[in-house]
Every structure is written in structure tokens, then in C-alpha cells.
Amino acid sequence: MKAFIITKYSKKEKLQLTQLAEPVAKANEVLVQIHAAGVNLLDSLIKNGEFKLFLLYKTPLVNGHDMAGTVVKVGSGVKKFKVGDEVYSRVADYRIGTFAEYIAVNEADLAPKPKNLSMEEAASIPLVGLTAWQALVEMGKIKKGQKVFIQAGSGGVGTFAIQFVKHLGAFVATTTSEKNRALVKSLGADVIIDYKTEDFSTILKDYDLVLHSNRDPKILEKSLRVLKPGGQLISLVGPPTPEFAEALGLSWPLKLVIKLLSSSARKQAKKQNVAFKFLFMRAEGNQLGEITKLIESGIIKPVIDKVFPFEQTNDAMAYVETGRAKGKVVIKVK
């Protein structure tokens, strides 16, 4: 099969298109023919080696985390899926490889593809959908009437999260550029801040939750200040926390490094009587199944900026890295 691989950790080197053997599905896995793959900034961060401190992959490896496709083989222990089923997934860490024609996926990480979406639309959903679910439902426990600040509302996570927060009955503020104001307004944003000309920290006050996705330390500091006492900031970009290191079962030297990395952010949060949390989302087929229901009922709609042909996977990654994508970028594999 054709696949795009990371030959070594590097910011400069592109993915290499190569021929690999078709994966073999184990007892609890299904073999999926990939029709489309979502492109995420995470794919670039993995390639660049920015997560190798706690998520070290052996190279060469096939890149890519999101996919939609058709089941072509099932392992002997698989119970939920059969050949011919249309599925989608954010595949598990250490089992990535969606920039390829086929992938073997644990059935626990799969969900039925929403019937009202194309393969390209479905492939845009898993990572951003699960990120929003795990941040806002699992960690944030958002309730009706609360106030949520979602940074970068026109991005992949932002476009999904705005719709999801409105479904949960909360009030939503977001940042975006003026040219994307109409988009985030159509998704349900109540307060829209032009990050180029306005300072959100002078506009927002007493928020229950901030979904933080900006790596600038000054933005993190300002984000903590817009929270009310007892509020929480959930960061998608770090720094990672000791709780995260504990959950991953990292060695004590790595736990110490991570504790030091996040010490400033945690001190700032404690000073303001708010919580600082870090989310590195995980594969979860059951949660994705709940997201399927929301999509099929019309509550959440995918937002796609561009679809690239498989041969232009590196161009798709480069476009995502610009930070200018409105919604998601997708690769059409089949």
C-alpha cells in the first residue's frame, strides 16, 4: 500500500511517500480501507518531535491520526463491526498511521461513520470532536448557563467546540479575525473578539472555563485572569501537568521535568483561585459514537476548509501549519 512516513524527527524534512505491506488485523482489530484522513496540527508536532518527551515513536512510521473508511477485514475477536461497515476514528497513540491506504484499528477506537456525512466530512471530526468532548464534558463538566471562552474559534477544534458548547446550553465567547466573524457567529458564538485589534482580557470577565489553545505565555496569563474564582483553564497546548504525567505512568525523572515545566502556570492559577489543567486527548470509540448521534441529528456540522488529494499530503500539512485554516483540512485517499 501507499503511505506517507516520518523518516526521522525533523521540522524541515517532509513526509516521504513509500510502499509498505498492508497491515494485518489482530484478533481485536479491523482492517480499514481509508477513504479520507483529517489533518491536524498534532501530525506536524509529532513529525517535529515536539512530543517525544512523553510520546516517543520509533521511526520510520506512518503519520496521521484521523480517518474515515470501510472495513475490509475483521479479527477473530471483533464483535461490533463487519466487512463493509463505514467507520471513522481518531486512532490510538502508538497505533497512528492514517496517511495511508489501509490501517488496522482496535475496534474500541472505532465508531460508525455518521450516515449524513461524506467520507471527507467524517474524517474531519474525530480528533477535534473527542478533544471538545473530553475537555468540556469529562474535565470541564460544563453546565447550562455557564460561560465558556474558546480560543481560535474558526480553527478545527474551535468550530466544533462552539457548536458543542451551545448544545450544552452555555454562553460562548471566542477569538477570531474579522474575516471569520460571520463563520463563528453562524456556529453560535455569543461574543466575538477580533484578536488582531482587541484584547480579550479587557472584555471578558468571570468565565467558568477557558479552552486554551495558544502557545504564547502572555496569552495563558491573560486567559487565567478572565476566569472567576473556582473556574478552570483547560489547555490543549500545555505545559503538561503532574496529573497528566501520573496518568501516563511516566518515569520519575520525566514526572519531575513536567512538574517543573508547568510550575509557573500552576502557581499563577493557584494565586487566582482557579484550576490549570492539561488535556492530551485519547482515542475513544464510545464517545465518538455519541458524537455520531449529535451529527446525525443535525446538532453539529463539520466545517471543512480544503480537501487535498493524497499525493499532496505534505501541502495539506503545510497549510495547517500556517494557522489560517477555517475549520478542518482533509486528505482524500481513495
Summarize the structure in words.
The protein is 31% helix and 26% strand. It is α/β, with parallel strands linked by helices and 334 residues long. The protein folds into 2 domains: 2-124 and 302-332, Medium-chain alcohol dehydrogenases, catalytic domain (Quinone Oxidoreductase, Chain A, domain 1, Alpha-Beta Complex); 128-278, Rossmann fold, CATH 3.40.50. Strands 3, 5, 6, 7, 8, 15 and 16 form a 7-stranded mixed beta sheet that branches. A 6-stranded parallel beta sheet has the order 11-10-9-12-13-14, with helices on both faces. A 3-stranded antiparallel beta sheet has the order 2-1-4, with no helix packed on it. The longest helix has 14 residues, at 126-139. 47% of the residues are buried. The mean pLDDT is 96. This is NADPH:quinone oxidoreductase.
Separation of the first and last Cα atoms: 12 Å
Q: Which sheet architecture does the biggest sheet show?
A: 7 strands, mixed
Number of domains: 2
Q: Given this structure, which CATH class of the largest domain is correct? A: Alpha Beta
Mean pLDDT across the residues is 96
Structural class: alpha/beta
Run of helices and strands:
EEEHEEEEEHHEHEHEEHEHHHEHEHE
Helix content: 25-40%
**Count of distinct strands:** 16
Tertiary shape: globular
Named at the architecture level, the CATH assignment of the largest domain is: Alpha-Beta Complex
Strand content: 25-35%
Report the uncertain regions.
none
Number of helices: 11
Rounded to an integer, what's the Rg over CA atoms?
20 Å
CATH evolutionary superfamily of the largest domain: Medium-chain alcohol dehydrogenases, catalytic domain
Kindly identify the CATH topology of the largest domain. Quinone Oxidoreductase, Chain A, domain 1
Domain Enoyl reductase (ER): 10-331
Protein name: NADPH:quinone oxidoreductase
Pfam family, one: ADH_zinc_N_2
InterPro entries: ADH-like_N, ER, GroES-like_sf, NAD(P)-bd_dom_sf, YIM1/Zinc_Alcohol_DH_Fams
